[in-house]
Amino acid sequence: MTVQDDAEVTIGDNCNFGPNVTIVTPVHPMLPNERREMLTADGEKKLLCYARPVHIGNDCWFGASVTVCPGVTIGDNCVIGAGSVVTRDIPADSFAAGVPCRVIQELTEADSMRHRPHILADNSVLE
């Protein structure tokens, strides 16, 4: 997992991250001359770094190779599918996936492992 935290990154409790998850906060100018140098408030020419925070709620699961882009907030209890590129906010209790990542469905009781005995095998869900 890689976190490039030029701005604040908050990660809630009980989150799980698959391999190669990347969270980035830097925002780069689109025009090449602005990437090379900008003018500071003091009138000095400099290469500047801009960044936007990323906030992740509690109990989220990120599949392998997910990329979370600058300025994104992901609500509690979300599942983000493998390979997704999250470019905008994801509301709580959502399964989201894709490039760009979008909400596929709201997570409900119907998504419980108790409805998947072929995966659950001899195990059971806590009540």
Descriptive tags:
127 residues; mainly beta; 32% strand; elongated
Please explain how this structure is put together.
The chain has 127 residues and is mainly β. Helices cover 7% and strands 32% of the residues. The strands form 5 sheets. Strands 3-10-13-15-16 form a 5-stranded mixed beta sheet, with no helix packed on it. A 4-stranded parallel beta sheet has the order 1-4-11-14, with no helix packed on it. Strands 2-9-12 form a 3-stranded parallel beta sheet, with no helix packed on it. The mean pLDDT is 95.
Rg computed from alpha carbons, rounded to a whole number of angstroms: 19 Å
Please state the structural category: mainly beta
The dominant shape is elongated
Total number of strands? 16
Which strands sit side by side, in order, in the main sheet?
3-10-13-15-16
Number of helices: 2
Low-confidence residue ranges: none
Mean pLDDT: 95
The description of the largest β-sheet is: 5 strands, mixed
Query: Percent helix among the residues?
Result: under 10%
Q: What is the string of SSEs from the N terminus onward?
A: EEEEEHEEEEEEEEEEEH
- What is the end-to-end distance? 33 Å
Percent of residues in beta strands? 25-35%
Concise synopsis of the structure shown:
The chain is mainly beta and 127 residues long.
List the helices and strands and how they pair.
Layout: E1 2-4, E2 9-11, E3 16-17, E4 22-24, E5 26-27, H1 32-36, E6 38-39, E7 45-46, E8 50-51, E9 54-56, E10 61-62, E11 67-68, E12 73-74, E13 79-80, E14 85-86, E15 94-97, E16 102-106, H2 117-120
